């Protein structure tokens, strides 16, 4: 946790916050902070700044905060990610959040196991937990939005044209022959497949929607590796 993220209801008054539980314990045990120390803080969906600890007990942490800096610029990417298995989902969502992506669609694909869609991790509060961990890691405050798209065809046919409009759209698909460009820095929509890859029908449907198939070279990467490698080309 490189940033202590504050919620609106942490505020005792406009400049003072009181924290309990995980964040207090982290400050105490990892930062090893004490009264008088300064910590980086940020308000969810708001500004970044500093907090000076004025009270630290076994129950509570209180800080005087000053929020006066803008959070980092979002990555101009909309990510379509075939729903990963629950064990991986947690980490992938954290790393996507820490890389600055603000729009995420978890999509279905033929090779996504149906049972993944009933994972309790897909509950909004569980997803939010992982998104917040990513923001705390990367010192950002803007909470990404995640949309669940459990039906591939209607999503691609009805919603995707609007979502990818005015962006350059790519589908990452090993062996397509076209290398993924670097340093794009322009609005992009990027589709990443499941562990088993997209099936040809899905790549075709995405191509019909304007997506360009791209490759990262001969090596086939695990999804959790492919995601940061692909996103790092867009930074
Ligand atoms: N089993 C599949 C690979 C799936 S890898 C196959 O053999 O084709 C999981 C996802 O990560 C892919 O759908 C793709 O979106 C991305 N990916 C992994 N390695 C890649 C590479 N070398 N080029 C482009 N995308 C890649």
Describe the protein in words:
The chain is α/β, with parallel strands linked by helices. The protein folds into two domains: 4-69, Hypothetical PUA domain-like, domain 1 (Ribosomal Protein L25, Chain P), CATH 2.40.240; 77-232, 3-Layer(aba) Sandwich (Alpha/beta knot). It has helices spanning 21-29, 86-98, 124-138, 152-164, 200-208, 223-232, and strands at residues 4-6, 11-13, 16-19, 38-43, 48-56, 61-69, 75-82, 101-107, 145-149, 168-172, 188-192, 212-214. The strands form two sheets. A six-stranded mixed beta sheet has the order 1-4-5-6-3-2. Strand 8, helix 3 and strand 9 (145-149) form a beta-alpha-beta unit. The two termini are 22 Å apart. Bound molecules: S-adenosyl-L-homocysteine. S-adenosyl-L-homocysteine is lined by residues 172-174, 192-193, 195-198, 215-217, 219-221, 223, 226.
Main sheet attributes: strand count, strand direction, barrel closure: 6 strands, mixed
CATH class of the largest domain: Alpha Beta
**Uncertain stretches of 5 or more adjacent residues:** none
Helix and strand sequence: EEEHEEEEHEHEHEEHEH
The number of distinct helices, counting runs of at least 4 residues, comes to 6
Structure summary:
The chain is α/β, with parallel strands linked by helices and 235 residues long. The protein is 29% helix and 29% strand.
Features:
single chain; binds S-adenosyl-L-homocysteine; 12 strands; six-stranded parallel beta sheet; Ribosomal Protein L25, Chain P; alpha/beta; Alpha/beta knot; six-stranded mixed beta sheet; 235 residues; 2 domains; 6 helices
